[in-house]
Design goal:
It is built from 16 helices and 23 strands. By secondary structure, it is of the alpha+beta class. A hairpin with a 3-residue loop joins strand 12 and strand 13. The protein is elongated, with a radius of gyration of 27 Å.
């Protein structure tokens, strides 16, 4: 604004008022009315709360601001539950107070004979008496009754003079740990996290999930940004006026909102960044001997035409994905069926890993499962294959071909990072390693054909931690989503570890919701003729011109790493 006329000064004052409204919201205070209509006030306070890159007069507010595509993803769509941000009055949401809880197993002698239990805090060695429930050996006390403020607190319990830890709270060394954060709990409680009608999780049996998406459900005319971090102007998107932005925030959303039902919004990452864990937390995780398991779910989306040739299974100790090779379709007259072959591989692998094994290391069992799956197959076809299993705190993965995995972990600054990943196996461009079983008549036509076998798998052995996120996928997902996009979606998921840390176990993001979000986002990219996807870049590196997304079957199997005795199942 230039000049000193009264109209310009009035507009500048209203702009500063907008910024002050945002500051009041960040401090947990309801915004004051300035006489304008309610919708305008809500948009103003919303922009202030989400750290907009520019204030209303065009000045940068902070260097630590999300890029504009991220800001667009934070935009409030009042007609969609996923994008429904907490109300500006969310500070007034009533939540149940966080508690310290101790539950003793009835198998312990102290469970029935103990008459009292106390909690002892590490910081000052103070002791507080817990109250016991009438019908079970369960003691509890509200954090508010202990005089503790927001932050990380370490504690243990005394029952009849015996030092014990509770399975209701995460463990740090020889202490229980809890995060007391009223603002984070209020955010989780006030955010409407809808449950999906379709239960995509499978515990111990192999499965194939085909979700038939109706035409148009992924949105038409969405412009795919080249990178999450790029400015919208660099994407060639039409410039919108302030009125257009207020009326249609969806035009700057990275992915269509329907692809992420059941997840939180990107504001979750900003709140978790403020939750600093103790300095020795990482060392404690590395030295822990407590076993972990998988809380898993999956989602498969078939291409528009033809059968879905992906197959998968998801359980509490093992996961798998097989991607049938579509190039075998011309040989259907010989009895070749890539979809049936991939499905049989997954059934064989699931049954094999469910058996009682001799005392073999977990990585040997995984490799043996791939071999037995190949040897026991009766159908004809070709397929890539990846298996993962966990034992103790070790994750072992066997991968053959261009399917793969990502292990995501919150790093030192509470942001998700790729802790480990697989490397694709290719003989040449677009020709991955694959298990192959041909009928004799067809095999005779290719006497010089070289077959890949279970012994050609790449093996990975990884030490995992509570709260890690494991993603297994077929190439249809990785060919259409960049790493930054996968991380962007995963940041909207709350791990069982953090939900348990803050005392709200039921607010953890279900793994089948996460799998559906990833698969739907990849599906959206695959049908976008202007998308710049990883597969197109891979083609250009080998001298091929490829435009738009890659239409393919898409499968995602997602699992949270949770400790035995805690989290969800």
């Amino acid at each position: 604004l230039q000049g000193s006329n009264s109209a310009g000064m009035a507009m500048e004052q209203r702009g500063n008022g907008c910024c002050f409204q945002g500051i009041r919201l960040l401090l947990g205070q309801p915004p004051e009315s300035d006489g304008h209509d309610e919708a305008v006030n809500r948009r103003r306070s919303f922009r202030g709360a989400l750290y907009s890159n520019l204030d209303v007069v065009g000045r940068p507010l902070s260097r630590r601001t999300p890029s504009l595509p991220n800001f667009g993803d934070l935009a409030m769509d009042e007609d969609a539950n996923f994008h429904r941000m907490p109300s500006p009055h969310a500070a007034n949401v009533e939540i149940v107070g966080q508690q310290i809880v101790l539950v003793l197993s009835r198998a312990l002698p102290e469970a029935e004979t103990a008459t009292s239990a106390m909690v002892v805090f590490k910081s000052d060695n103070s002791k507080h008496q817990l109250l016991r429930d009438a019908d079970e050996p369960r003691w509890s006390i509200p954090f508010s009754d202990t005089g503790r403020g927001n932050g990380i607190h370490l504690f243990h319990f005394l029952v009849g003079g015996t030092r014990v830890l509770s399975s209701e709270h995460p463990v740090l060394g020889s202490w229980n740990v809890a995060l007391v954060s009223d603002s984070l709990r209020r955010y989780l409680v006030s955010f409407a996290q809808e449950e999906s009608d379709a239960n995509l999780a499978s515990v111990s049996t192999p499965m194939r999930r085909l979700m038939k998406l109706q035409s148009g459900t992924l949105g038409k005319g969405l412009v795919r940004p080249r990178s999450i971090s790029h400015h919208l102007a660099a994407l060639g998107m039409p410039t919108m006026t302030r009125e257009e932005k207020a009326a249609n925030f969806d035009r700057s959303i990275v992915f269509h909102k329907s692809s992420r039902d059941g997840l939180y919004d990107p504001q979750l990452r900003l709140r978790l960044e403020a939750c600093e864990l103790p300095a020795d937390w990482e060392a404690s995780q590395q030295n822990s001997t407590q076993s972990v398991r998988l809380w898993s779910g999956s989602c498969s989306l078939g291409k528009e035409t033809g059968p879905c040739e992906d197959a998968c299974f998801a359980g509490t100790s093992a996961l798998g994905v097989a991607d049938g090779v579509g190039g075998m379709a011309p040989y259907a007259s010989y009895g070749v069926d890539a979809a049936a072959y991939a499905d049989e591989l997954m059934k064989n692998a699931a049954n094999c890993l469910a058996q009682v094994w001799p005392p073999l290391p977990v990585h040997e069992r995984v490799k043996a499962a791939v071999k037995q799956s190949e040897e026991q197959a009766m159908t004809f076809g070709a397929s890539t294959m990846i298996l993962a299993a966990v034992e103790g705190r070790t994750l072992s993965v066997a991968n053959l071909g261009d399917s793969g995995f990502l292990l995501l972990r919150r790093g030192r600054h509470r942001r998700l990072e790729i802790a480990e990943r697989s490397v694709e196996q290719h003989h040449r461009w677009n020709c991955p390693y694959q298990l192959t079983r041909l009928p004799p008549a067809l095999a005779a036509k290719f006497p010089d054909l070289t077959h890949d076998h279970a012994g050609d798998c790449d093996m990975y052995n990884i030490s995992v931690r509570d709260g890690d996120l494991l993603i297994l996928y077929s190439d249809g997902l990785k060919d259409n989503l960049h790493d930054s996009e996968i991380l962007h979606i995963a940041e909207c998921a709350l791990s069982p570890f953090y939900s348990e840390l803050v005392g709200l176990r039921d607010k953890a993001t279900r793994p089948d919701h996460m799998a559906k979000a990833l698969a739907s986002a990849a599906k959206e990219r695959s049908t976008d003729g202007r998308a710049r996807v990883p597969f197109a870049e891979y083609c250009r590196q080998h001298g091929y011109d490829f435009q738009g997304g890659k239409r393919d079957d898409i499968t995602a199997v997602v699992a949270w790493i949770v400790r035995e005795g805690g989290g969800q199942i």
